[in-house]
Amino acid sequence: MDKKTEEFYIRLKEELQATSDWPSVYLYKFIVPTDTQKIVIVENAFDNMGAVINTQQSKNGKFTSISVNVMMTSPEAVVEKYQELSTVEGIISL
């Protein structure tokens, strides 16, 4: 992980600690190239967590947005999930 990415995650964790009580429901938003395998990887990352997952394909069908509402235990857990999914080729975390 490069220094800029590491600093982003540190800042995100600090902001989450300051603005929310934990555990808390967190909304993840991702954009992935429309590829069933990539979508399944994201969905499986939240398997057995009670997550509500919504997907929507872009107008041209090239990309799919994935919104995940899920109860997370801490800011650290939120950041860990982002880091876990950062390995999915072409994923954009919003």
UniProtKB/TrEMBL annotation:
It comes from the Bacteria. InterPro entries: UPF0250_YbeD-like, YbeD-like_sf. Pfam families: DUF493. It comes from Flavobacterium stagni. This is DUF493 family protein.
